Structure formats: C-alpha cells, structure tokens
Amino acid sequence: SQQGEEDPQALSIQEGENATMNCSYKTSINNLQWYRQNSGRGLVHLILIRSNEREKHSGRLRVTLDTSKKSSSLLITASRAADTASYFCATVESPGGGNKLTFGTGTQLKVEL
Amino acid sequence: GAVVSQHPSWVICKSGTSVKIECRSLDFQATTMFWYRQFPKQSLMLMATSNEGSKATYEQGVEKDKFLINHASLTLSTLTVTSAHPEDSSFYICSARDLSSTGETQYFGPGTRLLVL
Fold first, then answer.
1. What is the pLDDT of residues B80-108, one digit of tens each?
2. Are B44 and A43 an interchain contact pair (Cβ–Cβ within 8 Å)?
3. CA A25 to CA A73: how far, in whole Å?
C-alpha cells in the first residue's frame, strides 16, 4: 500500500503553544482521517474530513485539506501535556478504497510543562 | 462511543508455537474487521480485512497460511499467528466498522503486544 508521509516526525513544544502536523498522500481520496495513539495503546479517532471539504474544526483541533496538493494539516491549539501522543493521518482511497485505511508515518508530539 | 476489545493484551510465546488473538466489538455489530501490525515507532500496516462469513482478504506480502483469520460472528474476529518466530514480534491492532452506522469511522481495539522468544 502507498503510505503517506507526515512531518515533522517528532515535535516538542511547551504547554499552551500550538502544534501543527502535516500529512501528504499519493492517491485520490474519499476522505482523510486523523488518529491519536498514546504510547503502546490503540488508536482514537479525532476527526474526519471529506474530499470536498477544505477545513474542519472540533474543539481545539483544526484540520485542513488541499486535494490539489494531496496534503492535510492538523492544528492543535493551546496544547496540554495530555496531548502528548503520536498522531497519524489515514486516507480512504477513491475509487475502490472501500473502508481500507492507509496510514501515514506519524508525528510524535511531546508537550512539556 | 463504540468499544472494541482485544484479548490478550500481551502474550509471550516460544518460537514455533501458535498464538490466537481475539477482537470483539462490544456494543455494535461489524461485518468487517481489520487487522493491523505495528512495529516500534512505526505506522500501522494493514494485514488483512476480515469479513463475517467469508474468507479474509490479505494485503500483498502477508502470508494467509501464517496469519489465519476467522470471523465467525458479527462481533468476533480472531487472528492466529501460526508457528510464530521472533520476527513476528509486534503490536497487533484490530479495528471494526459499525454495521448500523452510515459513517466512515473505524473503532480500534487497544492492541495486543506479541513477543516471540
């Protein structure tokens, strides 16, 4: 499968700052999703943005999607120590992607007090 | 939200033995479940799609005879790692899609850490 790239691979910020993570992918998509994974745990779904949407908000999260550049960004505002985790983007291809998710390489976020 | 459980959460086994991992959707039915493998500090790689009542669909490069998948009911899928070797040591995660939901969200289990000695 064609895995997406995320950057940065690792990000360390102070509590209260904003964190921005970027994701690039290679195919046409139906939707793009962002997930969070705490160390050694399962994934938690954060937000889904469809291919015909450009921006979406959920609480302190803001996601943008640029299908012409095949890229997405996740912004976490006013970060907290509890936001420390790995963040992955995942895409569903179109057409023919079904429900299969193709994950990006992930960004490890560390929020320090 | 929907809950997916996995059992066991971790397992240590000797090389050559087989290990079964269960994935259950606790409060919803799932005709389709997915099995992923994740190596340390890496992303999730889809291994196979598990379909209730039919054969699983394996991704390229995944040996179906080594990773046996059974999806016997709408709430249970099992992954059996047969004749496990140290290189099979990994974090195995399942996910499920709610049959009654029109959304695209998949719900993930907490993962099973396998260590083969």
1. 999 999 999 999 999 998 766 666 678 99
2. yes
3. 12
